[in-house]
Amino acid sequence: MKLEVLGCYGNVTERCRTVAFLVNDRVLFDAGTVTEVLSLERSKGISHVCLSHIHLDHVKGLCSLAEELSMYEDCGVAVLADRSVLTALSENVFNNVLWPDFTAISNRKNPIVRLQAMKPFEYTRVEGLRIQAIPVHHRVHTTGFLVNEGDKTIMLTSDTAMTERFWETAKREDHVEFIIAHVAFPNRLSPLASTAGHMTLSVLLDRIDTYRLHHIPFYVAHMKSMFEEEILREIRDAGRQNLRVLEQGSVLFV
Prior knowledge:
Largest sheet: 8 strands, mixed
Order of helices and strands: EEEHEHEHEEEEEHEHEHEHEE
Number of strands: 15
Number of domains: 1
Radius of gyration: 17 Å
Shape: globular
CATH architecture: 4-Layer Sandwich
CATH class: Alpha Beta
Structural class: alpha/beta
Number of helices: 7
């Protein structure tokens, strides 16, 4: 399995792009960053987008991707998410007010954007992957993801505060190669993080300790850029061998 980090920050600046992970060149997990990084040919190669939730930093790239694909015959993309996320996408994004309704605009054969609901904890088969959506605790309905290919599994927390079922799944699952965990704020801003539905490093460490996940490598992502140095310092001070920082533009193979 190949995972390409198109963006991994919690905000947009001149150097920071928001979250999008491209797996095996075909399946995108969240769409904060797409066409501003990928060439036209690579963008056209995306067959599915799995959305964790409706917040703009996770869906804005889908808007430009849909518009780009609409210019070409027989191009389109399937969007997979929990049914409530798809409803929010239709009502708030592809609603002919904020953006054209590309779920109703067709090229020669199919709609540009095809919506497919995922049931929590049930596997969906996509491009040789088995994908499971796991509800987590955020300000809006959100799921993390478990992604399996053969005997290899990776997990993505998406945006979440203190949560349980994601970590229960991680503890039960065999062969988890790594977990990408979203840590948005430094520890001193724990009240703000809790209100916003995000983790600090202390919350992540609590989850690792509580569920005994010390054997699994963790990649920290979704940092707000203004707190990056502070969070990096906290990671260094924690002295955990299984903690790493996800780098924008990097490619991970398992």
